[in-house]
């Protein structure tokens, strides 16, 4: 009975049962006991940890620009695109998880062991008040407490936006004329595509899990929770301020100053540190492997090795604030490929042969009756995102970006703020 249970939990039960005689597989490192405070806070690799990681980093700062997207799209289109791209993003995240499990299976057949791999080691790490301190966080395995706090921060901010907008009520002579222009329409749609394209770190999150096979539907569950944050907040703010949002890409700028708003601003700033760490960790790994430091046990040496990665990124972020129109351009030109098109194409290429489909570690899910249906779905995703996301979205986002490029400035003290009014010259 025990052998059967262990085999079912393996990445590839049939292979591992036969080869290992029901013993624990290499792909399943034992879950550490969560009795100590250290394990409860730092040592995360469960399905819940993966859910918190996905949910807390899926929207982040983009939460503040979704009302701006609604003003470009209109209320109905805004909600439809959120649901649509949320589900498409969940589908491609599912494909990434399937490809990762396939990779694990093939590597294990070659005798490669994933037990006690580098990403599952745990060190104590240092929390600081700036993004650069993420060099001290060894891997996604050590983000448990920050994922939980991050989700709390986005949840607070989303419901603050919702309640504050409803309490404020509709602005005087408010208008909801969106969508007005195709450029604005596709810019808004692309910003939502970018919003739900936060699964670029899916593989790293799975790699940090004790049982990565459980990840298959975690991203969808995280997306469903995120819907409860994004749809009410964007709808409420757009209802309250309407077309004013076309000139205010940050929802905070229209809400009255209060201690509640100040708290939301501070929480979003703190959350940015966490998001920065999530986004940079894969780059840290690549850089460490290039210079031969990935297996080093000293966290201080690894932190020093990561500085050449984090400092240039930080410098670029100071030069160009990635917000509003810049987000849309990044979403159309980069995210459309990295987290939508490439996973769908990779899945089709991986299982293009009949033998690959027969020996697949993961068969089509229950809601997808056949491989033909899988290919049809993947083809739809590739064509849609390439034409609508990259094509029309790229055109609209770049056009909108060019129109506003003069408002960005290099090393701007205030992002897209109106220039100060010159003092009136005194007449003598």
TrEMBL record:
GO biological process, one term: amino acid transport
One of the Pfam families matching this protein, by short name: Aa_trans
Single GO cellular component term: membrane
The keyword Cell cycle is annotated on this UniProt entry: no
Chief location of this protein within or outside the cell: membrane
Amino acid transporter transmembrane domain location: 117-386
Keywords from the named record: Amino-acid transport, Membrane, Transmembrane, Transmembrane helix, Transport
Keyword Transmembrane helix: yes
Transmembrane region(s): 79-101, 146-167, 217-241, 263-287, 299-323, 329-351, 372-396
Subcellular location: Membrane
InterPro entries: AA_transpt_TM
Protein name (database record): Auxin transporter protein 1
Species of the source: Striga hermonthica
């Amino acid at each position: 009975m025990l052998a059967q249970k262990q085999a079912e939990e393996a990445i590839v039960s049939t292979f591992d049962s036969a080869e290992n005689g029901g013993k624990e597989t290499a792909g399943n490192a034992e879950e550490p006991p969560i009795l100590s405070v250290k394990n409860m806070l730092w040592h995360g690799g469960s399905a819940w940890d993966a859910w918190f990681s996905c949910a807390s980093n899926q929207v982040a700062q983009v939460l503040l620009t979704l009302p701006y997207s609604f003003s470009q799209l209109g209320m109905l289109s805004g909600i439809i695109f959120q649901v649509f791209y949320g589900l498409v993003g969940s589908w491609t995240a599912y494909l990434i998880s399937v490809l990762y499990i396939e990779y694990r299976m093939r590597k294990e057949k070659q005798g490669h062991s994933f037990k006690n791999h580098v990403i599952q080691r745990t060190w104590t790490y240092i929390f600081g008040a700036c993004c650069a301190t993420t060099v001290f966080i060894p891997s996604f395995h050590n983000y448990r407490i920050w994922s939980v706090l991050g989700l709390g921060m986005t949840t607070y901010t989303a419901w603050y936006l919702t309640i504050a907008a409803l309490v404020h009520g509709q602005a005087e002579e408010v208008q909801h004329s969106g969508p007005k222009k195709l450029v604005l329409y596709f810019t808004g749609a692309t910003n939502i595509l970018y919003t739900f394209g936060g699964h670029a770190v899916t593989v790293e999150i799975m790699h940090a899990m004790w049982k990565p096979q459980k990840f298959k539907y975690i991203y969808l569950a995280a997306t469903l929770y995120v819907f409860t944050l994004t749809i009410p907040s964007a709808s409420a703010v757009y209802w309250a301020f309407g077309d004013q949002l076309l000139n205010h890409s940050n929802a905070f700028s229209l809400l009255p100053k209060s201690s509640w708003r100040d708290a939301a601003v501070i929480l979003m700033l703190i959350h940015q540190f966490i998001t920065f760490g999530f986004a940079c960790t894969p780059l840290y790994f690549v850089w460490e492997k290039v210079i031969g430091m990935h297996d080093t046990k000293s966290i201080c040496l690894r932190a020093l090795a990561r500085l050449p990665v984090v400092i240039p990124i930080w410098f670029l972020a100071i030069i160009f604030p990635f917000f509003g129109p810049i987000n849309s351009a990044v979403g159309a030109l980069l995210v459309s490929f990295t987290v939508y098109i490439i996973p769908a194409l990779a899945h089709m290429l991986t299982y293009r042969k009949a033998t690959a489909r027969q020996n697949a570690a993961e068969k089509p899910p229950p809601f997808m009756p056949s491989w033909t249906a899988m290919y049809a779905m993947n083809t739809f995703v590739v064509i849609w995102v390439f034409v609508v996301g990259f094509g029309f979205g790229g055109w609209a986002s770049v056009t909108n970006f060019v129109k506003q490029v003069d408002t960005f400035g290099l090393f701007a003290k205030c992002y897209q703020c109106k220039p100060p009014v010159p003092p009136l010259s005194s007449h003598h």
